[in-house]
Amino acid sequence: MLGKLAVAPLMLIVASLTAGGAGAQSDSEAPGQMIVVSAPSANSPVGELTAYERVDGRWRSVLGPTPADFGELGVGTPADDVFRTPVGTFPLGQAFGREANPGTRMPYFEATDEDWWDEDVDSPTYNTHVHAAEIDSEDAENLYDSGAIYDYAVLIEHNPERIPGRSAGIFLHVSDGKPTWGCVAIGRDQMRSVLQWLDPAQHPQITIGVGLDGPPAAE
To answer: Of 110, 109, 135, which is closest to residue 124 (Cα–Cα)?
Structure first.
């Protein structure tokens, strides 16, 4: 979530992304890839990101730690129009970018000026991707016009139930060196590497918190 655009009437809507929620997992669904994002304090807009993969029941780091940008207000409880990055553990879902697929195995689309993320709490497509020439929304972000931060990105599924008020459009994306509006942002090369590494068969997750020193013990 970076910028907001209000545009004209809806012409075409693409179905919302598959919701992913937390909860009990079978062994076959336990994450084999984990991204850990750690802030030094709850109000810090910067921290670190480290990516881990599980091998023989143990986590090993494969990328990082690398600098990461958070919401202007740091990390904590998310809310619409509050620039805070959500704390918790969440699945990673739809990937996209203004650039061609860099080789990720995640579902990926190349964004154009007809790709939006709807962040209007009163809209039936709140917190979903909409592909349309125009969108009837008071609060929609154009995923192409928002600039280079969306050259590469992946959805952090922090609100799969699409409950208004819990914030929308939270991504892991390319940093522009500034605080985000609630997303996590890292360097362009690092973001490209993360996408190339991510594998939906490994049920990748991201954990965001304060003072984290690694993923939970693998079982």
So the answer is: 135
Can you tell me the distance from the alpha carbon of 44 to that of 193, in angstroms, rounded to the nearest whole number? 25
Q: Are 95 and 107 in contact (CB under 8 A)?
A: yes
Query: What's the N-to-C CA distance of the chain in angstroms?
Result: 34
> Got the DSSP string for 13-76?
-PPPPPP---S---GGGS-SEEEEEEESSTT-SEEEEEEEEEETTEEEEEEEEEEEE-BTTBEE
Please give the mean pLDDT across all residues of the chain.
88
Q: Which of 116, 108, 122 is nearest to 153 (CA)?
A: 108
Find out whether 46 and 68 touch, Cβ atoms under 8 Å: yes
Check residue 82 and give left, alpha or beta (phi > 0: left; psi -120 to 50: alpha). beta
Sorted by where each begins, the domain ranges of the chain are 31-210
- How confident is the model at residue 74, as a pLDDT? 98
pLDDT of amino acid 91: 97
Is 3.40.50.2000 the CATH number for 31-210? no
What is the length of the chain?
219
CA 202 to centroid of chain Cα atoms? 17
Does 217 score more than 80 pLDDT?
A: no
Residue 165 has pLDDT above 70, yes or no: yes
The pTM (predicted TM-score) of the whole model is 0.85
pLDDT tens digits along 97-106: 999 999 999 9
191's enclosing H/E stretch is: helix 188-197
